[in-house]
Write a structure and sequence with these properties.
The chain has two domains: about 110 residues, Ubiquitin-like (UB roll); about 120 residues, Orthogonal Bundle (Fumarate Reductase Iron-sulfur Protein, Chain B, domain 2). It is built from nine helices and seven strands, in the order E-E-H-E-E-E-E-E-H-H-H-H-H-H-H-H. The strands form two sheets. Strands 2-1-5-3-4 form a five-stranded mixed β-sheet. A two-stranded antiparallel sheet has the order 6-7. The chain binds iron/sulfur cluster and FE2/S2 (inorganic) cluster (FES). Iron/sulfur cluster (SF4) binds next to helix 5 and helix 6. It comes from Vulgatibacter incomptus. This is Succinate dehydrogenase iron-sulfur protein. One of its GO terms (molecular function) is electron transfer activity. Keywords: Iron, Iron-sulfur, Metal-binding.
Length: about 260
């Protein structure tokens, strides 16, 4: 071991594909700098595996800057690892001890099937978003949008929810594999803006129906989602989601053709 570097024993979930059973395999991570990110540590392990002609460990990543939401790992039982408010790619090895044993698993949820090793398919989130997580009406150019007055309080509530990066840690941490923190964030970010009002009812109906169809569970107030969310999305968005659901159901009983409104 070079001076100042760490050595860790990794227990890693290896699974060839979704049809093959997986198992934990032990690896030694050597020459790990405390300044490396967790993914850079896995890169070092993979370089050594490839040099020996072994199959590298498959894991998801893209931006490595905490913004894309793809680095989906459960580290020692916690989605995104032990440090609150950070993604796996922003987690540094100085958060671990030299010689520590670290267990690495994929996000486990029926709606997120394993593709290979630590990679899961989170396409169910895309389907939920496609069912209403957008604004399709013309809102004009940037000056038009900025001409609509929005109170600071409402803008802050919307921006807090818009911080969601769709990583799926909330689902992985929930004993019910509920996606309600994620869906609540998508609904909340539009609910607090004037542009989100036109499709407010159809958005809630569509996204909630698709969330159920994709096999996500319901919230039973464990608050694990809030605890692991790397963007610290508050659980109040689930309360907002529930209110939007009730509102959409009551609107659904109204005479067809009546304006949705705010
Ligand atoms: S709510 Fe948080 S944990 Fe869930 S997908 Fe969004 S950023 Fe990830
Ligand atoms: S790789 Fe993009 S958020 Fe981690």
């Amino acid at each position: 071991m070079s001076a100042g570097t760490m050595k860790l024993k990794l227990r890693v979930w290896r699974q060839k594909n979704g049809n093959t059973p997986g198992k934990m395999i032990d690896y030694l991570a050597e020459d790990v700098s405390p300044d490396m990110s967790f993914l850079e540590m896995l890169d070092v392990v993979n370089e050594k595996l490839e040099a020996k002609g072994d199959e590298p460990i498959a894991f998801d990543h893209d931006c490595r800057e905490g913004i894309c939401g793809t680095c989906s790992l459960v580290i020692d039982g916690q989605a995104h690892g032990p440090i609150p408010g950070v993604t796996t790619c922003q987690l540094h090895m100085r958060s671990f001890r030299d010689g520590q044993e670290v267990t690495i698993e994929p996000f486990r949820a029926a709606a997120f099937p394993v593709v290979k090793d630590l990679v899961v398919n989170r396409g169910a989130f895309d389907k939920v978003v496609a069912a209403g997580g957008f604004v399709s009406v013309r809102t004009g150019g940037t000056p038009d949008g900025n001409a609509i007055p929005i109170s600071k309080e409402e803008a802050d509530l919307s921006m807090d929810a818009a911080a969601c990066i769709g990583c799926g840690a909330c689902v992985a941490a929930c004993p019910n594999a509920s996606a309600m923190l994620f869906v609540g964030a998508q609904i909340s970010k539009y609910k607090h803006l004037p542009q989100g009002q036109v499709e407010r009812t159809s958005r809630a109906n569509g996204m909630i129906a698709e969330m159920d169809a994709q096999g996500f569970g319901n919230c039973t107030n464990h608050r694990e989602c809030e605890a692991v969310c790397p963007k610290e999305i508050p659980i109040r968005v689930i309360a907002e989601l529930n209110r939007e659901f009730i509102r959409a159901k009551s609107k659904g009983k109204r005479v067809a053709g009546k304006s949705d409104g705010a």
